[in-house]
Amino acid sequence: MVTEAQMTPELLAKFGPLRAYQSGERLDTSVDPDRIVKTHCCFCGQQCGIQLKVKGNSVIGFEPWTDFPFNKGMLCPKGIRRYLQNSHHDRLTAAHFRDPTRPDGFRAVPYTNAIARVASEIQRIQSTYGNDAFGVLGGASMTTEKCYLLGKFARVCLKTRYIDYNGRLCMVSAGVGNKKAFGIDRAGNPTSDIPLADVIWIGGANVAECAPITTSYIWEARENGARIINVDPRITPLARTCDLVLPIKPGRDAALYAGILHLMIENDWLDHDFIENHTVGFDVVAASVKDWNPRKTAEVTGIAEKAIRQAAEWWGTAKTSYLMHARGMEQHSHGVINVLSAINIVLASGRIGRPGCGYSTITGQGNGQGGREHGQKADQLPGARDIENPEHRKHIAAIWDIREEELPHAGVDCYELLRKVETGEIRGLLCWSFNPFVSLPDSDFVRRMLEKLEFFVCIDFFLSETCRFADVILPGSQHEEDEGTVCSTEGRVIKINKAVDPPGDAKPDWRILQDIAQALGREHGFTFENPRAIFEELRRASAGGIADYSGITYEKIESRYGVFWPCPATDRDGKPIDHPGTPRLFEPGSWNPVAKGAGPFYFPDGKAHFNVASYAPPTEDVDADYPVILTTGRTVNMFLSGNQTRRIGPLVDQYPDPLLELHPVLAQKHGIVDKDWVTVESRRGALTVQCQVVTTIRPDVVFVPYHWGGAKSVNRVTISAQDPISKIPEYKVCAVRICKAEEPEYTKRLESQQ
Ligand SMILES: Nc1nc2c(c(=O)[nH]1)N[C@H]1C(S)=C(S)[C@@H](COP(=O)(O)OP(=O)(O)OC[C@H]3O[C@@H](n4cnc5c(=O)[nH]c(N)nc54)[C@H](O)[C@@H]3O)O[C@H]1N2
Ligand SMILES: Nc1nc2c(c(=O)[nH]1)N[C@H]1C(S)=C(S)[C@@H](COP(=O)(O)OP(=O)(O)OC[C@H]3O[C@@H](n4cnc5c(=O)[nH]c(N)nc54)[C@H](O)[C@@H]3O)O[C@H]1N2
Ligand code: SF4
Ligand SMILES: [Mo]
């Protein structure tokens, strides 16, 4: 197995951002395309519509798709450059076996040999140690068809309970919080409700860089006179046009929302009718925030008392409002509590489920929403069903043509899955559309686990840092090489259309799984001819579930610019209907298979739930040895682990290397000036990067983006503490110390190679 030492400098030279090159430079984009394909961006959960220009078997450019209603032709820098990855010379076009005798550690092999080897290793491991000794990691950049098939593959073909996915790092706190409060895990409103709101509250979301198109909806609200409140330890680009910035100390969001609810109650800024008729649990929650007066709230959150009072007044007295949040308040060991505390101020206001009155959590990954609805999550079955619910199990077992007893039970989250590698319970792993070595916290632990596996197979289209540990790499498909559906941040199910064929031996991802199933002699249920056939089974599997897709067809999606779920095929009496989909949840009379007319929320009594959300400090707070808070996140030009965007030259140029952001006061204390090299060190590891001295961050916090691997990975430093319910890692707070440093050797080595 590859060691850390072996990964540098060769690996960095090959994958590191320092070797920025213009991919696709051999393409002449002035050439007329043969055809234009309407599809969506392959990156974030905004899922902007885009038209790809295709010549032969290459994507050579793009045109805006102006009539797609969400983005109306607008794209962010990543969307504009995405086409450059299609003909990239790093593209994996063959299967590979590990071969330490080769300079880059791998040797190309015929695809069928690779599939045979994967099947025989699965067989060996499962017959020696049991079915659960083989685990599966999935990803939410893939289409819903692929995510569905992966869940089925793990449980029916591999018969393992151990499957989980990278959305575990992303949306799970929001998902748990939404289910506890509303009974459903989806944005409550379409984005078009944002401009209708008087007050917009944004909690822990760098909207301008991470949900760029939503920015224009917020600006539209501003044009309409809305007040905008932003809670973030940094003044992000959107904050420049906000009315009030609440520079919270990381890890304190539940305290802030308790303080806001306290003021709403004190000033009677409550919707009593709504609370009375449509919710349960208010009194207990009201009692729980009794002590959270503005002074205490200010002390804990680090936000000025005056600003807290102002925010509460604007929020409390608004006629219409919209609250949205993202990972800033979710990626915490109290992520679920933070989400519930924010929902409490929405429910107390009664402003939900109406035009201009809404709530949403901003989905991150391209198919972050669809990817968590149909079964690759450890505890879930298709249709957002519960893997431990006997009725749900029975329904899915029937669709999958197995007995209910054969269906494995809930597994564990993806980090726990790696801990099971440490104990020897898991010996083999299949990793698909996930780059855990870069994206999981405490990467030294992740490295040791990947090295310890007896057999590791990765499916990707670029060699990722994680693929480096693989025994076999299978060449999967890029977004534009396959068709299928995804669900956008709004809850809109849309269609990805195929523009080109996968090159060489690369295959549509779903076909690779079926080839493995066939090689194992377990092809029953894995003989789909195309994504449409998978979707048809998925529709049946989801029918009657909360994420009901049964009334959605490819044709309906195409003709209506997408369809919002739930969208059933039959009414409550089982009569076929042509349901239009559900853009806004929680409206009276909207489709709700759980409440069945009792009320708008997805519980049997139709009522939303207030939840006590008591503040507790982060797992690792600052102390004398590690006195600074590290928080991590993103930059506009890079996407996630960077395996794609670090290969797109113009994006690399925009922000090539991770920079540590710190305030001038903190910088001065350590004798640091702008562009100095700084070492940031936690109890787990250290990282040396250049710094950016900025006045837009709290003086007790440093920020580092996480899109790089190897020596540039901030996840060497982060903590693997997890939320006890959602199991999301605490990426947004750990304790560190910083000091001025010399330029590290590895950058000097790389520069001399260029
Ligand atoms: N350009 C770009 N866009 C992306 C992505 C990307 O990689 N690059 N990834 C996509 C994905 S998968 C996701 S999940 C989303 C993430 O979207 P966001 O959640 O908006 O992005 P982050 O940068 O992770 O964090 C948001 C903000 O949280 C703040 N923050 C840190 N700690 C706290 C805290 O304790 N409380 C509060 N209130 N705020 C805090 C940070 O300063 C940061 O500005 O973006 C999606 N869009
Ligand atoms: N420190 C820190 N760490 C974080 C975060 C943070 O804020 N701070 N955020 C977390 C969040 S929110 C997220 S979502 C995760 C994301 O972390 P990852 O999921 O590990 O990141 P990706 O870059 O999406 O990795 C996906 C891999 O799949 C490949 N891929 C993409 N699409 C496809 C496809 O259709 N088929 C196949 N076969 N392969 C594909 C890509 O090339 C890439 O190698 O990172 C998390 N890690
Ligand atoms: S906002 Fe997201 S979906 Fe839209 S172009 Fe940018 S990365 Fe792509
Ligand atoms: Mo994410």
Structure keywords:
single chain; 754 residues; alpha/beta; Phosphorylase Kinase, domain 1; Rossmann fold; Dimethylsulfoxide Reductase, domain 2; 4 domains; 7-stranded mixed beta sheet; 6-stranded mixed beta sheet; 25 helices; 17% strand; disordered N terminus; binds ligand MGD; binds iron/sulfur cluster; binds molybdenum atom
Number of domains: 4
Q: According to CATH, what is the topology of the largest domain?
A: Rossmann fold
Helix content percent band: 25-40%
Task: Count every beta strand, where a strand is a DSSP E run of 2 or more residues.
Answer: 28
Poorly predicted tracts of residues: 1-27
Mean pLDDT: 94
Strand content: 15-25%
Structural class: alpha/beta
Distance between the termini: 28 Å
CATH top level of the largest domain is Alpha Beta
Which small compounds were modeled alongside the protein?
A: ligand MGD, iron/sulfur cluster, molybdenum atom
Estimated radius of gyration: 25 Å
**What strand line-up does the widest sheet have?**
5-4-18-17-16-6-7
What overall form do the CA principal axes indicate?
A: globular
Question: Helices and strands in order, then pairings?
Answer:
Elements: H1 4-7, H2 10-15, E1 35-40, E2 49-55, E3 58-64, H3 77-81, E4 95-98, E5 106-109, H4 111-129, E6 134-138, H5 144-157, E7 163-165, H6 172-182, E8 199-203, H7 207-210, H8 212-223, E9 227-231, E10 244-246, H9 253-266, H10 272-278, E11 279-280, H11 282-288, H12 294-301, H13 305-317, E12 321-325, H14 327-330, H15 335-349, E13 357-361, E14 380-381, E15 385-386, H16 390-399, H17 414-422, E16 428-432, H18 436-439, H19 443-452, E17 455-460, E18 472-475, E19 484-487, E20 492-496, H20 509-519, H21 531-542, H22 554-559, E21 563-564, E22 608-609, E23 628-633, H23 649-654, E24 659-662, H24 664-669, E25 677-681, E26 686-693, E27 701-705, E28 734-741, H25 745-753
Helix pairs in contact: 4-20, 5-20, 5-21, 6-15, 9-12, 9-13, 9-15, 12-13, 17-19
